[in-house]
Structures are given as C-alpha cells and as structure tokens.
Design a protein that fits this description.
The protein contains 19 helices and 16 strands. The chain has 456 residues and is of the alpha/beta class. The strands form five sheets. Strands 2-1-3-4-5 form a five-stranded parallel sheet, sandwiched between helices. A five-stranded parallel sheet has the order 7-10-13-6-14. The protein has a two-stranded antiparallel sheet with strand order 8-9. α2 packs parallel to α3, α6 packs across α7 and α13 crosses α15. About 2% of the residues have low confidence.
Length: 456
C-alpha cells in the first residue's frame, strides 16, 4: 500500500526538492503552499505524515499544527524551520509535533526520520488493533433487561472512586464487570491488576498482596512489590474475596483504611492510591455469620453492590453470546466466522448452563472444532452437547408436594421470584410484562415473603 505524505511550505524550492526526494523513495506526495490549503489537503488526502513549515504567511505552522492535531489526534507532523529556536521546538512538541528539522534539509536525516516515524506509526496501529481485540475479549454481551440494568449501574459507578462488591455464580462474568468499571473510570490508563484469592495458597496470599523483602522467608531471594503497589494509581481486582485467609483480610482492611502497605519483612510503609473492586460467588453475610469473613471488611468493600445475573435469568441473550463467541474464535484462528442454524441456536437457548457464560463459550468452541458441516446444525448440538433440558429456575421437585393448593402456591411463588430476578427486581417492569396490576404484584411479594438476595 502506498504511503502518503503532505508537504506544507510557502517556499516553492522546498516543496519541489522535498517532493522529488519523497517520490523517489516511493511515497505518494501532495504539496500545499499555505496553511489553509494544507488543512484542506489533509482532510481529503489523509496523509500518514506531514512536513510543515513553521514560518508562513497567513496561518503559521504552529497554528496549523494545532488545528491538525485537534482534527486528528493521531496526526504525525514534522516541523521544518529555517531558524528554529529552543522556544519554537518546545512549543511544537507541546502541540504534538513528532520532530522538528532545520533548513536546509539534510537528505540522510530526512530518510532516517521517515523510517522511524513510519515504524512508530505502525507500532501504534498494531497496539490499537491489539486493544480492540482485548476490548472484544472482555466485552459484556447482551440486550436483556438484566444486562441493561447491569451496564447502567456500571456506567454510574465507573466514574466514581467507590469500591464495588461484585457477586454472582461462577462463570457469569464478574471479571468482565470489574474490567468494564476500570475501563470507564478516570484510572483507565493506569494498571488493572487481578488477584484470584482462591488460587493462591493461604501462606502466600499476603506476600502476593503486600510484597516482601529479600530473606523475609524461605524462597524470598529478592525484594518484590505486591499487587497493591503494582496497582498504584489504578485498580486492584480481588476475585473470590470470600476465600481469603483471616490474617490477609485484616491486613487488607488496614490498607483500605490507611492507604499504606508494608512489605513482609520490611519496616518502611509505602503509600498507595488504589481503587479496590472485589468479587465472590459466596454469600458473604452467611460467611460472616459462620465466622469466616470479617464484617468490617465486608462493609468497606460493599459500598456499591453489583449482582451479575446467571445465564438462566437472561436466556434471550444466548443467541447473541453464541454469535459473539463464533466471531471471537474465528478472529483468534484467522478464519471466517462459522455459521450456525436458527434451530441450533434455539436448542442451545433451551439447555441448562450450570457453568453459565463460561460453559457456553467452551461449548461453542467444541462445536466449532467438532461439528461436521460448514454450518453448525441442531443435530450437532444434540450429538456434541447432549439433551440437558433447562428446568424452570426455583421450581424444585413440585411433584412431591402433597396437595394441589400447595402445588399452585409453590409454583406461583417460584414463577414470580424468577421473573423479579430476571428484571432486576424492577416491580413496575415485571408487572407490565406479566400484565398484572402493580398493586397485585406487591401483595403477592408480601404474601410469599419474596426478598431480593442482596441489599441494594
């Protein structure tokens, strides 16, 4: 692909000489004799690099640089000047110039600068593509009421410094929520550091979180910063916080109170500025009652609670998720996305997913690898996934209930509870969907003593 360069200079000799050099090197070149013409050319030509004279009649080079960078923050602009000063160079750099060259231009210097500038631009574009890939990997997919309510809460809390406790079953996507909060926060350009408290042995969790000094214990062969220090200025995500040891809980509480960590074996406290997000699949209130989790730490972490809905509570999102995973897998393997029939999508939506979104993704990958035809069919789902049928959430074994009246009450209670969960306990929305007067729904909630699992 031809690389495009725009030369903006009011001296015809500079435009001609630089243009000939660049064309000889294989670049597509356009020139402009003043700043206004240069801005117009930039909008239509969209060059990858601009050579821009500092001193010109009308709009000078610094003003043109400012306007180009406002219109395109990624613009790569090299300033050229016959009498560059330190002040000019500093001002140009502050406005976003890539470099500044003095007249008369040195051919070797120009060629070296071109090579470096285009290598730097290529690296930036590759980084941007990588970021897009990562964003896609951590995208929260869904249009159900539960997901829309979740994303609305994420948007509201992300811009604040508030701590968030994310709850939900395994595989629902608690990490995705944590990353979305970090991505939407003022700390987005700072580190996002994750710690899986369940995956680290209890005797090592404190070293992992707070760091250690050389010789503080067997195996400590050098000083090491902990996760709190690594996340300084950014976000620390404590996943499976319910599995953290009691001693580590006490130290985390102290860090949250004072904003200071001390490495194991060290005596010098280190000030840290960290936003803490935590997640668990356990009921922490029950853990507190059993003496396994500190109540004071719970209240420190649970400033804003967010519950991630299970997949059975948002089945309408399953086709969207399947399509998303098919596209992800295709991008990973460099292949066109695999097609899937409507019947296969319907069959997947009918199945029970104990492992939630994580299990669904693994199943889609299995289907991509093992399905026989070019299109994944319902028969492939039957053969490779099985005939697991979803049971209505919360119904239990109704056939064991003794009387018909008790059966009706149990079924109605389970049905209403499932619907309230599906609509994030929005009573008005639930009543509208059920075509039931809101007052009647309130009476049934009171009659069956229905309660939300987490206090909002």
């Amino acid at each position: 692909m031809t690389r495009r360069i725009l030369v903006i200079d009011d001296e015809p000799g500079i435009r001609q000489a630089l243009g000939q050099l660049l064309e000889y090197e294989g670049f597509e070149v356009r020139t402009a004799s003043n700043g206004t013409e240069g801005i117009t050319q930039y909008d239509t030509f969209r060059p990858q690099l601009v050579f821009l004279d500092v001193k010109m009649a009308g709009l000078d080079g610094l003003e043109v640089l400012k306007r180009l960078r406002q219109a395109d923050p990624d613009a790569t602009v090299v300033m050229i000047s016959g009498h560059a000063t330190i002040q000019t160079a500093v001002e140009a750099t502050q406005l976003g110039a890539y470099d500044i060259l003095e007249k008369p231009l040195d051919t070797d210097r120009v060629l070296v600068l071109l090579r470096n500038a285009f290598e730097n631009r290529q690296l930036s574009e590759e980084n941007a593509r990588l970021r897009e890939t990562i964003e896609s990997r951590y995208e929260i997919v869904g249009r159900s009421f539960g997901i829309r309510a979740l994303l609305d809460r994420v948007d509201k809390v992300a811009a604040t410094p508030a701590r968030v406790l994310i709850t939900g079953e395994n595989g629902t996507g608690k990490e995705l929520v944590a990353r979305a909060i970090h991505r939407g926060s003022p700390r987005a350009k700072k580190p996002f550091v994750e710690v899986n408290c369940a995956a680290i042995p209890s005797e090592l969790i404190e070293s992992e979180l707070f760091g250690h000094m050389k010789g503080s214990f067997t195996g400590a062969i050098s000083d090491r910063a902990g996760k709190f220090e690594q996340a300084d200025g950014g976000t620390l995500f404590l996943d499976e916080i319910g599995d953290m040891s009691s001693s580590a809980q006490a130290k985390v509480l102290r860090v949250l109170q004072d904003g200071v960590v001390t490495r194991i074996g060290g005596s010098k406290p280190v000030q840290v500025d960290v936003r803490v997000l935590a997640a668990t699949n356990k009921n922490l209130e029950e853990e507190i009652a059993a003496g396994r989790f500190r109540e004071d730490l719970y209240y420190r972490l649970n400033v804003v609670p967010i519950t991630v809905p299970a997949l059975r509570e948002r089945r309408e999102d399953i086709p969207l998720l399947v399509t998303h995973f098919l596209q992800q897998l295709a991008a990973r393997d460099g292949l066109p996305a695999r097609r899937i029939s409507d019947e296969a999508l319907q069959r997947l939506a009918e199945l029970e997913w104990q492992g939630n979104v994580r299990e669904l993704r693994n199943t889609v990958e299995r289907l991509v690898i093992l399905a026989s035809g070019s299109t994944i069919a319902a028969a492939d789902v039957e053969r490779l996934v099985g005939r697991r049928t979803a049971e209505p959430s919360g119904l239990g074994n109704l056939l064991d209930i003794a009387t018909f009246e008790e059966f009706k009450q149990a079924a109605e209670r389970a049905y209403l509870l499932a619907k309230l969960r599906a609509f994030d306990w929005n009573v008005s929305e639930t009543a509208r969907v059920l075509d039931m007067p809101r007052s009647n729904l309130y009476k049934k909630i009171e009659r069956y003593q229905l309660q939300r699992e987490t206090t909002e």
